[in-house]
Amino acid sequence: MKRRTLITGVLVLVTLLAAGCVAGDGGLSGTTWRLISYMGDDGQTIRATAGATISFSGDGTLQGNAGCNSYAAEYRAGKNQIVISHPVATEMYCTDESVMEEERRFLFLITQASTYSLNGDILIISQRDGREILAFGRML
Fold first, then answer.
1. Of 4, 79, 87, 112, which is most buried by a Cβ count within 10 Å?
2. How far does the signal peptide extend, from start to end residue (predicted)?
3. DSSP-based three-state secondary structure for 42
4. Residue 120, by phi and psi: left (phi above 0), alpha (psi -120 to 50) or beta?
5. Residue 83 phi/psi, 5° resolution?
6. CATH number, domain at 54?
7. What pLDDT, on a 0 to 100 scale, did the predictor assign at position 25?
8. Is the pLDDT at 128 greater than 50, yes or no?
9. Alpha-carbon distance 31 to 10, whole Å?
10. What is the DSSP secondary structure assignment for residue 85, as one 8-state letter?
11. How many domains are contained in the chain?
12. Quick one: pLDDT at residue 26?
C-alpha cells in the first residue's frame, strides 16, 4: 500500500512538471462551484442532478461533496492548466443508484482534468484532448 501511494505521488509530480503547471491556485480559490453537467461514459453531455460541489483552497487542496460522499484532493493550477490528484472520499452508500453513478463518474472525471476556463460564473474543465468534461456554476 505504501509503495502504491509513493508511485501515485511520483506520477502526480511528473504530470505536474510535464503540464508546466505552476504551484498555486490559478485564480480558483475562494469560490465554491456546483456541478452543472458532465461528460457521460458515451461522451455525451449529461445534466448533473446529484448536487456535487467543488471548492478550491489557496494551499493546493480542494474539497466538496460528490453527491453522496464528501471528498478531498490536491491540485495545481496555472496558465489555465490544472492537474487534480485522485480524491479521497468517504464511503457512504446512497440508496439512489443514479446518485452513486453520477458520483462515480464525477470523481473519475476530476482526475482527467487538464485545462480550465473561467467565464463569469461558469467554470469549464477539459481533458487533454480539449473536450469539456465538467461544467460548474459559481455558488453564491
1. 87
2. none
3. coil
4. left
5. -130, 130
6. 2.40.128.270
7. 56
8. yes
9. 29
10. P
11. 1
12. 64
Please list the residues that pair with 135 across neighbouring strands. Answer: 37, 124
Residue located via cell numbers 493546493: 60
* Whole-number Å distance between alpha carbons of 39 and 35: 11
> What span, in angstroms and rounded, lies between the C-alpha atoms of 17 and 25?
15
Residue 96: C-alpha distances to residues 37, 44, 88, 104, 105 (Å): 19, 22, 21, 13, 15
pLDDT value of residue 23: 47
CB 50 within 8 A of CB 68: yes
Which residues have CB under 8 Å from 55's CB, separation 6+? 31, 32, 33, 62, 63, 64
Dihedral angle sign, alpha carbons of residues 42, 46, 51, 54: positive
Q: How many CB atoms sit inside 10 A of residue 45's CB?
A: 14
Whether this prediction's pTM lies above 0.70 is answered by yes
State which residues form the domain around 121: 2-138
Copy the grid coordinates of residue 95.
Answer: 440508496
What is the dihedral sign for C-alpha 68, 119, 121, 77?
positive
